Q: What sequence folds into this?
């Protein structure tokens, strides 16, 4: 394998990691607040469809905004069901995913009936960074990316700052650590949980939008291919911290990019191994993380 | 009591109305007449014996997966891995059947083939379920996530299997295995339909389930979900409960894998699971984790899938994927209905076991209680519950937050 191939694998890793990190940052808020959103996959796929549909009418940036609104709406629905109607969070999450996958396919088939060609929309245009892109190897990797990748970096910093320095961030962490004690000190766990989920939903919608609008510019049913679940694994792996989530996203992005690009080389390995590898490695890292967490807990119990 | 019942009836009615409204809205959105659509749905299910056969053939695998998932769900082990277990059961059954054919030179009778295929399928599914159970028992790996990820691993393994060691020598459009010998396939139950005798297995599953419900094991499993410490005194350890419930669900899913191979396609194909695993989970919840409800819900799910095709051909504009949307809405409704009957679905954030303060617990039992309280929550990965469940650690957790 040549150096150029490795460079393009790494460049692809950044691009593929972006949607995972965007949704992961949102899920980080959700899990920090002591909740769980299993509906990410459904929010992402509906976000992707909405993104493409709106981008077709009003351009890709508006498309991403519309995707966020769809994610937000699904999160609001989930909030009503979980808090007002006391439904089980896990079941509601799975149902949202089922609903999202079904509804996106249904609407897509109505929009583009079988036999007609798929609609292709303009993708988010790249910013020309001039001579920086011409730096060999590093140039295309760091400076030739879609603005979405740079936006993700900004989002990470923002999420870190919000969690660390704002009142809301403190409330989220307090609710997640001990909802009872937080409530005694004047935090409203329900309100905090609801807001965290709204953030998570909006970001999941955007993440879905970027899956469709960053490079491809069209929608196909099931195109998120389980990324919503990978996000959950990444957030647990990264211990809900922005840095951890970014690293987890990069790991998965790298494996996926590797599996996409190395098939074209002379390496003779079954192609299924490459497509399965990202999920397999995620599972292994999940096991390692759980093991470390268990040891930490055991140590704490021993100390007390 | 009557008030609760009234409220339940009101909520159920509201859910039914909501589902109907969504269905009508979707049909109108597709530019069709809801009544024509409804007629297409009904005719799609009932217009001919063939259709009824399709209905049964679709419902039984879902019902079996759902029934065998109940112990795990009642124990609070939220396995989403039936999909992958179906795949592994199908692979194991195909491999064993083809292996017997090669060994005996295709002279083996159906008496040998059928049990061998069924057992191989069940074992294949159970072994694949053992992996997440072991990971959860050993290192507390979240069962939802491990089973979800393993579904993708199973799909990859199936693709590789169909391309290499089980592929057919003929050239075919899609990768598939060799055709199974005739003696190993399940004969048709109703001639002229695709319904095979395998659908009678639902009776076996129901009988076994009714028997299990009355055993001490069922009680222990239910207690385990609510009060792990009490379950431990009744003899249900965490690891034991995990292994047993996951093995049962895996075996059931694997059996379904064999049924799909030997009854429907007569060969292993990439589409063998076809969403049966996820539908099984949804049906188990929709049916309130009770046999009667599950059978009804499975028939309903299958009717939606089969009828949606009829709806598509009757109106010409409604995509049959409308069935998936309605299933999602239904599952949402189930979550709301289940909230009225606590205990039917394990709560996402169960209240931690009260701290033993009467001195009745020995110190090591005390640690065990704290640990078990965490266990109850591990499926949800809620740091909140962790902290709440460990009184000693809660203090430094709060410090962490303050910092």
A:
């Amino acid at each position: 394998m040549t150096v150029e191939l490795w460079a393009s694998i790494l460049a692809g890793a950044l691009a593929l990691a972006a949607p995972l990190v965007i949704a992961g940052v949102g899920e980080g808020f959700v899990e920090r607040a002591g909740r769980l959103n299993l509906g990410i996959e459904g929010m992402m796929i509906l976000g992707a469809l909405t993104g493409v549909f709106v981008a077709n009418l009003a351009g890709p940036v508006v498309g991403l905004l519309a995707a966020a609104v769809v994610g937000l709406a699904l999160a609001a629905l989930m909030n009503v069901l979980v808090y007002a109607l006391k439904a089980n969070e896990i079941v509601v999450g799975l149902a949202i995913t089922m609903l999202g996958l079904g509804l996106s396919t249904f609407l897509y088939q109505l929009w583009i009936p079988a036999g007609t060609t798929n609609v292709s929309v303009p993708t988010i245009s790249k910013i020309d960074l001039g001579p920086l892109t011409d730096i060999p190897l590093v140039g295309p990797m760091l400076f030739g990316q879609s603005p979405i990748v740079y936006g993700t970096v900004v989002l990470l910093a923002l999420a870190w700052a919000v969690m660390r320095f704002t009142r809301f961030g403190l409330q989220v962490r307090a609710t997640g650590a001990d909802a009872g004690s937080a409530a005694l000190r004047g935090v409203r766990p329900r309100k905090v949980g609801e807001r965290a989920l709204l953030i998570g939903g909006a970001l999941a919608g955007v993440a879905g939008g970027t899956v469709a609008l960053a490079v491809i510019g069209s929608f196909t049913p099931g195109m998120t291919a389980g990324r919503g679940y990978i996000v959950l694994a990444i957030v647990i792996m990264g211990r809900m911290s922005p840095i951890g989530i970014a690293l987890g996203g990069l790991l998965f992005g790298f494996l996926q990019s590797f599996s996409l690009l190395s098939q074209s080389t002379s390496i003779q390995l079954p192609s299924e191994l490459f497509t399965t590898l990202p999920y397999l490695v995620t599972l292994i890292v999940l096991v390692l993380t759980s093991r470390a967490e268990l040891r930490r807990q055991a140590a704490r119990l021993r100390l007390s | 009591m009557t008030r609760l019942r009234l409220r339940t009836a009101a909520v159920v009615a509201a859910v039914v109305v909501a589902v109907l409204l969504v269905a009508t809205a979707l049909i109108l959105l597709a530019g069709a007449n809801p009544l024509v659509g409804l007629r297409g749905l009904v005719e799609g299910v009932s217009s001919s014996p063939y259709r009824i056969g399709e209905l049964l053939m679709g419902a039984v695998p879902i019902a079996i997966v759902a029934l065998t998932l109940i112990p795990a769900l009642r124990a609070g082990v939220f396995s989403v891995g039936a999909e992958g277990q179906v795949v592994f059961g199908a692979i194991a059954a195909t491999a064993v059947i083809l292996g017997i054919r090669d060994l005996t030179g295709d002279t083996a009778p159906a008496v040998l083939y059928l049990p061998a295929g069924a057992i191989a399928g069940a074992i294949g599914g159970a072994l694949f379920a053992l992996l997440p159970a072991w990971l959860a028992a050993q290192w507390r790996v979240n069962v939802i996530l491990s089973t979800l990820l393993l579904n993708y691993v199973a799909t990859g393994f199936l693709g590789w299997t169909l391309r290499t060691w089980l592929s057919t020598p003929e050239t075919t459009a899609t990768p598939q295995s060799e055709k199974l010998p005739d003696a190993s396939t399940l004969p048709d139950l109703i001639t002229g339909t695709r319904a095979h005798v395998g659908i009678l297995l639902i009776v076996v599953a129901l009988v076994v389930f009714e028997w299990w419900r009355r055993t001490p094991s069922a009680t222990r499993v239910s207690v385990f979900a609510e009060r792990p410490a009490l379950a431990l005194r009744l003899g249900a350890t965490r690891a034991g409960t995990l292994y047993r419930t996951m093995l049962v669900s895996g075996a059931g899913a694997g059996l379904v894998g064999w049924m799909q191979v030997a009854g429907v396609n007569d060969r292993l194909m990439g589409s063998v699971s076809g969403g049966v695993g996820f539908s099984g989970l949804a049906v188990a919840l929709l049916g309130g984790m009770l046999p009667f409800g599950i059978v009804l819900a499975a028939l309903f799910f299958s009717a939606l899938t089969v009828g949606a095709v009829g709806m598509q051909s009757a109106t010409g504009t409604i995509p049959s994927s409308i069935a998936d949307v309605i299933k999602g809405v239904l599952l949402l409704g189930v979550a709301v209905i289940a909230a009225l009957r606590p205990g039917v679905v394990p709560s996402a954030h169960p209240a931690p076991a009260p701290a033993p303060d009467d001195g009745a617990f020995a110190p090591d039992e005390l640690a065990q209680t704290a640990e078990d309280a965490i266990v109850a929550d591990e499926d949800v990965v809620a740091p909140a519950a962790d902290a709440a469940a460990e009184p000693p650690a809660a203090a430094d957790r709060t410090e962490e937050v303050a910092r």
